[in-house]
Amino acid sequence: MKKLVQPIKDIMQSYKDVLIKKDHCSCRIPQNSEVIKIIKLTKEIIFPGYFSTKQLRETSDKKTTKRFVKKLHKILKKQIKYSLLYMADEEKSKDLAKKSCVLCIEFLKRIPKMRALIYKDVEAHFEGDPAALNRDQVIISYPGLYATVIHRMAHELDDLGVRVIPRMMSEFAHRETGIDINPSAKIGEYFFIDHGTGVVIGETTEIGNHVKIYQGVTLGAMSLRKGQKLKGVKRHPTIGNHVTIYAGASILGGQSLIGDHSIIGANVFITGSIPEKSIVTMKAMELETRENKVDESIS
Known about the structure:
Elements (H helix, E strand, L loop, with lengths): L4 H13 L14 H15 L15 H27 L5 H16 L1 H18 L6 H7 L1 H17 L5 H13 L2 E2 L4 E2 L4 E3 L5 E2 L4 E2 L4 E3 L3 E3 L17 E2 L4 E2 L4 E3 L4 E2 L4 E2 L4 E2 L8 E2 L19
Parallel strand pairs: 1-4, 2-5, 3-6, 4-7, 5-8, 6-9, 7-10, 8-11, 9-12, 10-13, 12-14
Helix pairs in contact: 2-3, 2-8, 3-4, 5-7, 7-8
C-alpha cells in the first residue's frame, strides 16, 4: 500500500539514526512465551490437578506426570541451550547443547525438593491468614504464594548457573502480581507474603524461616550510584527467623541484619541492624480533625 511507503522509509531511517545495540547478535535469546510455558508446566507438576479442567485428586497418575515432565524437558532444554549460547555469544555448540540437557535434568531432579519447600509456603499462607478459606484457595488464588512458587523455580535455575531465564521468570511474576523477587535472593522455609503488591526483594537478600511480610515492603540496597561496580557485593539486608515486617517498611543495605523474633512496624525506614526480639515502630502521628465548612447549598 502506498500509505505505508513513508512510514517504512522513516522507520528504516530511524534504524540508522538511533542504533539500539544488541550485546550478542550471533545467537537466539530465550523467548518469553516459552518461559511462561515452563512456569505453567512446572506449576502443574508441583500442584497436580489444581490447574486442569479435571476433578481434583490427591496425586497425579504416572501417565499424566510422564507427559508433563517430557513436555517440560523438551521446552526447558531448548531455552537453556539458547541461554548458554547467548551468554557464550555462539551460534552453535555441541558441548553447550549437551550441557543444556544436563542442567535441564538436574532441574527436574530438584522438583521434589521444591515441592517440599512450597508445601511449607502453602502452610505459612494458610495458617497466617485468617481470611483463608482453605489450602486449595491459597494455591489457586493467592498472589504471594504464586510469586513465591515462581521464585522457587527461578532460584533453582539461578543456582544451577542458568542465566537470563530466571530473571525472565521473576519479571513474569512481577507483572502478574506486583511482587518483585530477584532470583538470587535466598528465602527460607514457611515464607508468607500477605497481599503482596509493591513488595521488592533484592538480589543479595537473605531471609530466614517463618518470615511474614506485607504489601509495599522493600528489602533493598542503600545506593546504586556505583552501578555495575557493585556487582557481587552484599547490598541487601539479612532477615532472621520468625520475623514479621508490616506494610510499607523499607530495610536497606547489606550490613542490615534483622534479629530473630523481631517485629518491624509499618512505614519504618531502617538502614542498620536490629537486635533479636525487637519491636520497631514509628512514633504515633498526630491526627487533626477540623470542621468541614463546605456550603451544601452550592452542591
